[in-house]
């Protein structure tokens, strides 16, 4: 038996494999090859000062 709750409760894993897909960057709107559904900022934008400062997205 598990010693505490965190040892017995696990985050469910997706049945689907992530597939590379063309998506539009949320910062510059250019298409890029996204490795997973949550990747929405292109590599070029991730190298900008605005992204590293946290100012790349409007709140």
Protein described:
The protein has three helices and two strands, in the order αββαα. The mean pLDDT is 84. The protein has a domain at 20-53. β1 and β2 (31-34) form a beta hairpin. It is an alpha+beta fold. It has a two-stranded antiparallel ribbon with strand order 1-2. The chain has helices at 5-8, 43-46, 49-53; strands at 21-24, 31-34.
What is the overall pLDDT average?
Answer: 84
DSSP, total strands = 2
What order do the helices and strands follow? HEEHH
Helix coverage percent: 10-25%
Count of helical regions = 3
Overall 3D form: flat
Instruction: Describe the sheet with the most strands.
Output: 2 strands, antiparallel
Structural class label: alpha+beta
Task: Note the beta-strand portion.
Answer: 5-15%
Distance linking N and C termini: 45 Å
> Which strands sit side by side, in order, in the main sheet?
1-2
Radius of gyration: 17 Å
Q: Give start-end ranges of low-pLDDT stretches.
A: none
Task: List the keywords.
59 residues, alpha+beta, two-stranded antiparallel ribbon, 2 strands, 14% strand, flat
Explain the layout of strands and helices:
Blueprint: H1 5-8, E1 21-24, E2 31-34, H2 43-46, H3 49-53
Antiparallel strand pairs: 1-2
Summarize the structure.
This protein has 59 residues and is α+β, with helices and mostly antiparallel strands. The chain is 22% helix and 14% strand.
């Amino acid at each position: 038996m598990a010693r505490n709750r965190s040892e017995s409760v696990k985050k469910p894993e997706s049945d689907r494999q992530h597939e590379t897909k063309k998506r539009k960057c949320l910062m510059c709107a250019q298409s890029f090859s996204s490795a997973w559904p949550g990747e929405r900022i292109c590599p070029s934008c991730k190298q900008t000062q605005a992204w590293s400062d946290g100012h790349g997205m409007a709140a």
